[in-house]
Amino acid sequence: MAHRKKVLLKVIILGDSGVGKTSLMNQYVNQKFSNQYKATIGADFLTKEITIDEKLVTMQIWDTAGQERFQSLGVAFYRGADACVLVYDITNPISFEKLDSWRDEFLAQAGPRDPENFPFIVLGNKVDQENERRVPTQKIELWCKAKNAQQPMSFFETSAKEATGVEEAFQTIAKIALQKGQDDDIFVPAATIDLSGAATKSSGGCC
Amino acid sequence: MRAVAVRESNMKKFERLKENEGIERRLDGFVSNQQSNEPKQSFESLKSTKIKASKEHFVAMILISQGWITPQDTLYLTILSCKKQCRRLRDGIPAQLRASWWINLAWKDQTLVSHDSSIFFHELLEDQCNIIPHLAHTGVEGEIRRDLFRTFPQEVYFDASTTQPGHIQLANILMALSKYFPDIGYCQGMNYVVGKLLLLWYQDYQQQQLTLDHEEEIFWVVAGIIKNHQLHSLWAPSMPGYLQLFDLFTNETTRLRKHIFALQKLMAQFLPQLASHLRQIGMHAGYFATQWFATLFSRVLSLDAFATVWNLFLVDGFKLLFRLALLLLSYMQLDLLQ
């Protein structure tokens, strides 16, 4: 897509609190792991420049708060997202069961043009704690197929601690999002400007 | 006569202290690496009015420092419950008075009877000194458990490599709060507020081991602000059922969203250039303000700055936090506009 000067991919990381969203983001962007991350409140983002098919792409990765009651604030961050990374913890079955609601809530709040084919990827984190695993791999495989039989979501089992599968996973989501973005550009050639201000107007009614 | 002389010299000392550490100076200290003076002018109106020095300022403190009264005395409470005194004392409080002073401010006109409150706190914890082993892995208790080691892990007091006394105290207080306010349960943000208060108490008591009594003090400070400073709806999840239906029409959920909306309006009014710049780049105020408000600035401020802000916050309430947010943004404005 030659008319695009710069490619920016906005990627949102979602999942229950404590599954390792901040760790995954930091491992991918800074190649670092620490067990001293503070619980995320609201949201935070990091950017990383990568090259995909000889094209320079800036990934803007948004790390979000995992506690459910912060979800209603998500709309401000989800707007204009190009892809979404759903994370669960393989040692915590509840975090796996919540994937559905994270996905649905994201689609409801972000309101993408083509929700059926919106680029999602699923990461089962903490595989370094294999002996405490409580979510078998088949389960996530089935879940991905159930969501979209023709084009099942990709999933990776990762360890932010040991950097297992992290690079691969983010590369994959970047590729899928880029492909999707190019498909969409055929219909909407102009670069979209995200006016988040417009989103906040609807959240009003306070004064 | 001698007593009078001592008292006068003490007063002078206090006044000097006050002049040296005026509130404006302290607010400036928050962002010490910023040297820009330009955006400040428009902010004079936002800052609290400068408090004039007066001899009555520190009556309560002098009485205490002379050993004439203790924080448990009725006289002391009477002095504290005088609104004028509250306003005058708000920009500085000696460490040994902080607990009783803050509980008093947090509970405003309602007096706490310390004896009863202590029993109450222990009942909430079911007489456990360490609630951690009793915390479930799911629900509210699971959420508290998960955040214990993710609250200021860089601080030695909360060093995440082993279970510290700080973690136990944090767990006890959060658990007691969740039982006291079952409709709030636990909201992320409370962990930082309680954690910061523990760090402050630890500093105030010269790094001596904090006891259950201190936990109880912090519990009542936070319980007080939740009840009396409209923080209830800040931390409570949006009501199920009818509010969600309501939501469809007004898009209205939590107070946090309202606060962020209000901050955006204030930014448009007081920092129009910055507000339009942020709108242009699609940066919603929720990005930075969610954390500021949900943690009542406990996550970002240094311990001293936090103590100063809370002295004011406990008197002025949430509007102080809006002022602070605008002040911080005004200091960062030049950098943000680049």
UniProtKB/TrEMBL annotation, chain A:
Alphabetized, the UniProt keywords read:
GTP-binding, Lipoprotein, Nucleotide-binding, Prenylation
Name the SMART domains on file.
Answer: RAB, RAN, RAS, RHO
Q: Name one GO molecular function term.
A: GTPase activity
UniProt signal peptide: none
Give the highest taxon in the source lineage. Eukaryota
The Swiss-Prot or TrEMBL record describes its family as follows: Belongs to the small GTPase superfamily. Rab family.
Q: What is this protein called?
A: Rab7 family GTPase
| Species of provenance | Thraustotheca clavata
From TrEMBL, chain B:
Q: Which Pfam families match?
A: RabGAP-TBC (PF00566)
**Would you say which domain of life the source belongs to?**
Eukaryota
By its UniProt entry, which InterPro entries does this protein fall under?
Answer: Rab-GAP-TBC_dom, Rab-GAP_TBC_sf, Rab_GAP_TBC_domain
Under Gene Ontology molecular function, one entry of this record is: small GTPase binding
| Domain Rab-GAP TBC residue range list | 92-317
The name this protein carries in UniProt is Rab-GAP TBC domain-containing protein
Protein species of origin:
Thraustotheca clavata
